[in-house]
Amino acid sequence: MVIQPRGSIQLITTQGFNRRDPAQKQMAAAALEEVHKIGKLFYAQGGGYKLKGYFKTLKGDAW
To answer: pTM of the entire structure?
Structure first.
């Protein structure tokens, strides 16, 4: 997890995904679905927010 200067939190996977490859695209979608499931459970148990996810491409050394 990385906390950005404005306070947002990013969860960065240790495995990258090439979403042009059909098998890796499916794995990336499954990983994102797990994040959504965890977010729904967290919110249902009184957490103040749901986890939202999206894909972001690493270009260089900074996000």
So the answer is: 0.67
